[in-house]
Amino acid sequence: MEGSFSILIGFFFAASTYLMLSRQLIRILLGVSLLGNAVNLLIFTTGRLTREVPPVIPNSSLVPVEVTANPLPQALILTAIVISFSFFAFLLVLAFRAYQELGTDDANEMRVAEPVGEVKPPMGY
Hints:
This protein is an all-alpha fold. Helices cover 58% and strands 0% of the residues. The chain is built from three helices and no strands. Helix 1 packs antiparallel against helix 2. 3% of the residues are buried.
């Protein structure tokens, strides 16, 4: 099971890298979202995929009697989901406002610091 999840995570990382190298802002945002999901799956896979019992310690012992599930990756993933959703929402609003102001979603055309038609500075001595 971990092998198939590893291949899926590899595809997620490859697809997110491909999308983030695009020029359109929507593709970049989808790549960032896909990258967050790939990282969440990676953390989930490293925390074991087998079914285990909850980490409850009986009153008669000091340590769990059986093999228990690891709650740390689950807590990390829940936190990462909330953070990645809020980050995606912020980037979506930022991209929408940039589109409203500049009239394009092409990252190369959004270069406000490099206006078109200006005299270029000297490139050498």
